């Protein structure tokens, strides 16, 4: 439990209770000695923070309280042995960083800590700039510590990957067929990166694999192909279908027969078959001018195939005469009749048969008048009426009944409802003929013995002198009736041919 030396000093060597006997001669004395541990009350470190370099050392000293504590054993520990280690208070730097070193008493579990900053005694390592590729990222120039890797200058961040460096466009390969008839898949057009070897779609951006580019083998047939004798459809791999001779169609003057299947020309030209025709020189009829249906030509070879036909003038149409203006054609806008008489508001001489029509007539008819005397006159024939009347009113169809009724003063109703008054030059009495009787009437008018209607006055004024009926007009009639001979003699005998009632 304890020891005692000759001077009486007692030293505890173990826990327990033991009696110490001291003897002096015959005298002795016993003392009970109790030996027990002195407990630890705390611990301090000589440093709470220290800095060391990598591979450097520092010693921490732990002081246990009380000084006479029975158990002064201390346990050392680092919270990060990769940065700093500790053994019996000796701390060693391993790598750059911070580690906490803790000293803990075995008795009582008291502890104290020291913060250890491990720094690097840098050794510079320079890294030159490297460009990025599509495979690896590059970087700018930088300097780092060879030991701890700390960036000392520059920038070691990676740059973005570069775009692929593409090959020329690899063309599309159609599917094919082996000699045994097996189909081989085709390949879509694409690029290949010359750096990383990846396959790139034709958009030059999208990375693809071989399956993405594969064209599943199946026959694809386009339009018909043909030669001079036959046609067919062909797949890109060479396989043919629908192969047969040309058929159907019809040859024309411009080209041979066109196959009704493939549309290719085959065979010889048929110069007599004109397919594409057109009309040339056509002219539309107007109110006053004739039209033309046009000639038919072949558009391909230019040959004239047939002549056209004349189209009659359509004639004026519509409108209504007034006392201020004649009827206005509703088609061409031309005034084609004379205005109404200002006093009677009846139609004026809408058509006048001039003396030149009389000169064209060669037939002289001799008849007996009521007094038994022979009277000569010029007949108004149908062809004269037709040419004179229809030139002005082509829309009116001339009939034999109309011819019989025509004479000065006669009113003819047109198909448009308009009434016209006929003026036949030389026919004063309105019988449709120019005779000696008309000449006699003209003489009597010039002598003031009778008065004519406006229509009669216009019919009698054929000489064009003084714009009224006079002896000169009668002389013209006599000359016409006598073929231009002995006009004076015939004129003197007018009176004997006059009807008694005149």
Characterise this structure.
- This protein is of the alpha+beta class.
- The chain folds into 7 domains: 2-35, no CATH class; 42-119, Sandwich (Immunoglobulin-like), CATH 2.60.40; 124-154, no CATH class; 176-215, no CATH class; 225-266, no CATH class; 277-311, no CATH class; 349-497, no CATH class.
- Helices cover 13% and strands 31% of the residues.
- The chain has 9 helices and 39 strands.
- Strands 6-13-12-9 form a 4-stranded mixed sheet, with no helix packed on it. It has a 3-stranded antiparallel sheet with strand order 7-11-10, with no helix packed on it.
Short description:
The protein is α+β, with helices and mostly antiparallel strands.
The multimeric state of the shown protein is single chain
Q: In terms of per-residue confidence, which ranges show pLDDT below 50 for 5 or more consecutive residues?
A: 342-370, 372-377, 379-384
Gross morphology: rod-shaped
Radius of gyration: 72 Å
Distance between the termini: 204 Å
SS class:
alpha+beta
| Major sheet size, sense and barrel closure | 4 strands, mixed
In percent, how helical is the residue content?
A: 10-25%
Beta-strand content bin: 25-35%
Number of structural units classed as domains: 7
Number of strands: 39
Strand order of the largest sheet: 6-13-12-9
Mean pLDDT: 80
How many helices? The count is 9
């Amino acid at each position: 439990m304890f020891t005692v030396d000759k001077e009486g000093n007692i030293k505890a060597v173990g826990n327990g209770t033991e009696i110490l006997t001291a003897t002096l001669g015959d005298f002795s004395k016993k003392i009970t000695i109790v030996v027990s541990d002195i407990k630890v009350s705390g611990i301090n470190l000589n440093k709470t923070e220290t800095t060391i370099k990598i591979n450097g050392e520092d010693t921490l000293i732990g002081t246990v309280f009380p000084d006479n504590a029975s158990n002064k054993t201390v346990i050392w520990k680092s919270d990060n042995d990769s940065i700093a280690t500790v053994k019996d208070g000796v701390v060693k730097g391993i790598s750059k960083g911070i580690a906490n070193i803790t000293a803990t008493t075995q008795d009582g579990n008291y502890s104290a800590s020291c913060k250890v900053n491990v720094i690097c005694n840098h050794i510079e390592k320079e890294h030159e700039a490297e460009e990025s590729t599509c495979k690896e990222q590059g970087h700018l120039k930088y300097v780092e510590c060879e030991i701890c890797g700390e960036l000392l200058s520059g920038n070691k961040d990676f740059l973005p990957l570069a775009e692929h460096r593409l090959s020329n466009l690899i063309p599309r390969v159609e599917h094919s067929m082996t000699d045994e008839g097996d189909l081989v898949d085709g390949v879509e057009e694409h690029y290949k990166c010359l750096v990383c070897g990846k396959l790139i779609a034709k958009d030059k951006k999208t990375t693809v694999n071989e399956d993405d580019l594969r064209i599943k083998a199946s026959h694809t047939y386009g339009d018909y192909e043909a030669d001079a004798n036959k046609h067919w459809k062909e797949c890109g791999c060479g396989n043919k279908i629908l192969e047969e001779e040309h058929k159907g169609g019809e040859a024309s003057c411009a080209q041979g027969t066109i196959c009704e299947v493939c549309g290719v020309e085959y065979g010889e030209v048929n110069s007599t078959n004109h397919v594409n025709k057109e009309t040339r020189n056509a002219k539309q009829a107007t109110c006053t001018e004739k039209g033309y249906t046009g000639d038919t030509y072949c558009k391909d070879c230019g040959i004239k195939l047939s002549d056209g036909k004349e189209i009659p003038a359509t004639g004026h149409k519509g409108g209504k005469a007034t006392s201020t203006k004649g009827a206005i054609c509703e088609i061409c806008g031309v005034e084609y009749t004379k205005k109404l008489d200002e006093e009677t508001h009846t139609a004026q001489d809408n058509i006048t048969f001039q003396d030149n029509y009389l000169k064209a007539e060669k037939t002289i008819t001799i008849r007996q008048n009521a007094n038994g005397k022979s009277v000569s006159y010029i007949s108004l024939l149908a062809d004269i009426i037709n040419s004179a009347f229809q030139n002005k009113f082509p829309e009116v169809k001339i009939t034999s009944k109309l011819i019989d009724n025509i004479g000065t003063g006669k009113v003819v109703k047109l198909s448009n409802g308009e009434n016209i008054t006929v003026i036949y030059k030389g026919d004063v009495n309105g019988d449709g003929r120019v005779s000696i009787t008309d000449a006699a009437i003209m003489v009597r008018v010039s002598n003031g013995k009778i008065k004519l209607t406006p229509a009669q006055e216009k019919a009698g004024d054929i000489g064009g002198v003084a714009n009224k009926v006079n002896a000169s007009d009668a002389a013209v009639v006599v000359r016409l009736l006598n073929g231009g001979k002995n006009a004076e003699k015939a004129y003197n005998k007018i009176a004997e041919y006059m009807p008694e009632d005149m």
